[in-house]
Amino acid sequence: MEQGILIEGVGVTYQTASGTFEALKDVNLKIEPGEFISIVGPSGCGKTTLLNVLAGFLKSNTGQACLDGNPIKGPGPERGVVFQQYAIFPWLTVVENVAFGLKLSANKTAHDRIDEIVDHFLELVGLQDFKKSYPKELSGGMKQRVAIARAYAVNPQVLLMDEPFGALDAQTRQFMQESLLDILEEEKKTVVFITHGVEEATFLSTRVVVMASKPGRIREVIPIDIPYPRKASVKTAPEFVKIRAEIDKVVREEFQKQRQ
Predict the structure, then answer these.
(1) Residue 2 confidence class, pLDDT cut points 50, 70, 90
(2) CA 33 – CA 85 distance, rounded (Å)
């Protein structure tokens, strides 16, 4: 059986008032188990559309995406999704939010195991002292940590993240990036991560996928040959600066094309 994520010839079109819009065209990518893939590119290049295909929220018009050889036909417990907006329930406490997915039929878990799992992930994201707090009592970064803990709690093979740190201030974003890598060091997962930040993509990823627009397609896949674990200090290393500049150059070229 083919392991990992395989995207073959994926195309997505929409019907709009002005006609047919081609959001994605002939997208092909193989993602190995345990890889951290970041997707960057100008607005409108189809990053979120591709993530929605992988999540099963959207069906492609052509081609297909598969996980471990099985076509993705809809949402499933083997894929966890974290959005940019804090998609947690305001009427539930931190503990209740993290435990939510474990009580659904697809992930039905024994009560004593739920407590154990929730405690483990709250400790990983540093929120064990906020178990009984409600989202309105948390900062933006803490809310996103709740969302990440909830996604991880159901033990998905793949974590799909759509600009999860985009709404955070620079300092909190750096903390969240390092925290995510710390979690991944302990909880090995495959990650597909959308971001507009080239530095963020370079820091987190094993490979960075640069997309072009009109229609959305993959222009270039750039490997990040910097060993893990990574800390913020690596961002000043010559090899990091070189790779970041290479990715930034490609993204800027696509941005300029989009404006023409």
Answers:
(1) low
(2) 27
This prediction's pTM: 0.89
Sorted by where each begins, the domain ranges of the chain are: 1-78+206-260
State which fold the 1-78+206-260 domain adopts: Rossmann fold (3.40.50)
Would you say 145 and 125 are in contact if contact means Cβ atoms under 8 Å apart? yes
- For residue 147, which of 171, 113, 114, 121 has the smallest C-alpha distance? 121
| Distance separating alpha carbons of residues 162 and 84, to the nearest angstrom | 6
Model confidence pLDDT, tens digit, residues 164-192: 888 778 888 888 888 889 888 888 889 99
